[in-house]
């Protein structure tokens, strides 16, 4: 098994089940042209997020890590009329690209993009008292995932879903001797997830065009 084969299978799946889409394609093209890192979710992963949000019946979505807005568009399209999505991006350049992509997709009325460090923005979101989020997607710097997860729990309710991307990192997550801040952050998050009695969770390995990685998904089953 090689990354070439994984990528070919991804392309096959995309061709069969994820039709070309002008707004999504433009989001990737403009992000690449602006020099944003090519780390957005793949088309099939984006559709998975979309389907999970629809299955959840999410009306309120929180995204930590916007990048160029590709995953934001997928998630926002799952919202019903009157829904809302708050997405947080630390980099102003990335946020400008994302805002343009979101507007081009016709989702400006559903999406609120907040610019700033997530650990500074999240307390303000919590203080606003806008109600719990039905689904949270965390796809930001890995060293701070434990803190992001803690905030996601505070902003959730029984029945909320929390999804965390990039929790395998080419298998390096199992290296107990790693000094990499990202790996340490993921391992701390996994420890939190295992010890948290208010959630039921699992993690799934993925392979594809973005290599070997994985995501964690947690269902809030207890009162917060």
Give keywords.
alpha/beta, 7 strands, 224 residues, Rossmann fold, seven-stranded mixed sheet, 43% helix
Helix-strand blueprint:
Elements: H1 3-17, H2 22-33, H3 43-56, E1 60-64, H4 70-76, E2 84-89, H5 92-104, E3 111-115, H6 118-128, E4 135-138, H7 145-154, E5 161-165, H8 181-195, E6 199-208, E7 211-220
Parallel strand pairs: 1-2, 1-4, 2-3, 4-5
Antiparallel strand pairs: 5-7, 6-7
Helix pairs in contact: 2-5, 3-4, 6-7, 7-8
Notes on the structure:
By secondary structure, the chain is of the alpha/beta class. The chain has one domain: Rossmann fold. Helix content is 43%, strand content 20%. The protein has helices at 3-17, 22-33, 43-56, 70-76, 92-104, 118-128, 145-154, 181-195, and strands at residues 60-64, 84-89, 111-115, 135-138, 161-165, 199-208, 211-220. The chain has a seven-stranded mixed sheet with strand order 3-2-1-4-5-7-6, with helices on both faces. Helix 4 (70-76) links the parallel strand 1 and strand 2 (84-89). Helix 2 runs antiparallel to helix 5 (92-104), helix 6 packs parallel to helix 7 (145-154) and helix 7 (145-154) packs parallel to helix 8 (181-195). The longest helix has 15 residues, at 3-17. The model has no long low-confidence stretch (mean pLDDT 97).
């Amino acid at each position: 098994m090689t990354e070439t084969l994984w990528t070919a299978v991804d392309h096959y799946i995309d061709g069969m089940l994820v039709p070309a889409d002008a707004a999504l394609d433009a989001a990737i093209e403009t992000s690449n042209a602006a020099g944003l890192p090519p780390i957005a979710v793949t088309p099939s992963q984006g559709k998975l997020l979309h389907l999970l949000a629809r299955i959840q019946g999410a009306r309120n979505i929180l995204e930590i890590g916007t990048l160029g807005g590709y995953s934001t568009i997928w998630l926002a399209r799952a919202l019903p009329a009157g829904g809302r999505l708050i997405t947080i991006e630390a980099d102003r350049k990335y946020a400008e690209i994302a805002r343009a992509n979101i507007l081009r997709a016709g989702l400006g009325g559903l999406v609120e993009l907040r610019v700033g460090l997530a650990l500074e923005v999240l307390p303000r979101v919590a203080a606003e008292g806008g109600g719990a989020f039905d689904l949270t997607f965390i796809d930001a710097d890995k060293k701070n995932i434990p803190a992001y997860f803690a905030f996601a729990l505070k902003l959730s309710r029984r029945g909320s879903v929390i999804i965390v991307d990039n929790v395998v990192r080419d298998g390096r997550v199992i290296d107990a001797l790693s000094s990499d801040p990202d790996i340490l952050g993921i391992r701390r998050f996994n420890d939190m997830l295992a010890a948290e009695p208010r959630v039921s969770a699992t993690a799934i390995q993925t392979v594809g065009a973005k290599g070997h990685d994985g995501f964690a998904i947690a269902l809030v089953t207890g009162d917060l």
